[in-house]
Request: fold
Amino acid sequence: MATREELIQGFEFTVQQAKRTTSLYAEGEWDAARASGWTPKQVYCHLATLALAVPQLAQGLEGASESTDITQGIDINQMNDQAVAAMAGMDPTQVLLAFEANYGKLIEFVKAMPDDQLQAKRSFLSDPIPVSDILANSIMLHGIHHVYEASARFGAP
Reply:
């Protein structure tokens, strides 16, 4: 089971790596599509929105039964498209500031989560696992993956 400290350190690491890798971007790189088809700007819009949504996700997890997958009926691709579209008018600096701010809120939320809520088993695109592992796999590792994906110039279309 992922610990609170591991989650916090992972979210902090994600922000650190985002700041490091984006500081190396060349002119126009924020809008250059990567192998995933997304641009770095789209990736950071997605991550900023996802970090902001975690408290709502946690409320859904808290009220769900252990065996109910809370993603049932949710079109994740549509959610991603809406998240990116909502921030499309922002410039890269604004996107990165929103990303940092939302990850800061996410860290504070995780710090305040009761232990029993972190340890409760729930289903989120998986068999029942502790909520802390859902946060570790679906938010923390997901974010780190996207940060590195956004910085990768290999395999870009």
Observations:
- The domain at 4-151 is CATH 1.20.120.450 (Four Helix Bundle (Hemerythrin (Met), subunit A)).
- The chain has one domain: 4-151.
- The first helix runs from residue 4 to 22.
